[in-house]
Design a protein that fits this description.
single chain; alpha+beta; 6-stranded mixed β-sheet; 5 helices
Length: 173
């Protein structure tokens, strides 16, 4: 009988918790307004923990790749100087960032669509080009529930979470 000896449990669990901590730090999560916590008989914090945990497990076991990208010139010559930094995640900031990202990809001959359907919900933007992975963009806050489902079920895609104008969290499935 062949017993595959993997890493010890405590090492794997430590790595999962490191990923959970990183995810909580880099993603701005919108507070969900649904009855999932009541239906499952646990509080919102517990549900969010398990959603973060599921994403972390996908990262740790290599099913998805995740990284944070920071750059002053992330969107090329997109004008971020006029973005109101005080109300970063307000409606004006959100629309302005979507326009900057849209223009950035259109200049590179990508097809850009607004609010494309995902496995669960919609993305803010969909970025498409033949022979390239489909890219889905969420600007500002995102639903951890929606992100978890889409990362799990949508294979061979790239998801970008844009919490700030000069920072992107990239997930490759």
């Amino acid at each position: 009988m062949n017993h595959n000896k993997g890493l010890p449990w405590h090492i794997v669990e430590k790595r999962i918790h490191e990923e959970i901590d990183w995810l909580k730090k880099v993603i701005d999560v919108v507070e969900e307004e649904n009855n999932l916590d009541t239906a499952l008989g646990m509080g919102r914090w517990a549900i969010n923990y398990y959603l973060y945990r599921l994403i972390a497990i996908l990262i740790v076991n290599g099913q998805i790749k995740a990284k944070e990208i920071n750059s002053r010139n992330l969107w090329g010559d997109g004008d971020i100087t006029n973005i109101d930094k005080t109300h970063r995640h307000g409606q004006e900031w959100h629309v302005n960032m979507m326009n900057i990202i849209d223009n950035y990809f259109k200049k590179q001959n990508y097809l850009v669509s607004t609010e494309p359907n995902l496995y669960h919900g919609r993305a803010d933007l969909g970025i498409f080009m033949e022979n390239k992975k489909d890219l889905y963009v969420e600007v500002g806050t995102t639903s951890i529930y929606k992100l978890c489902l889409n990362l799990h079920f949508m294979k061979d895609n790239i998801f970008l979470i844009v919490p700030q104008e000069n920072r992107v969290i990239e997930f490759k499935t």
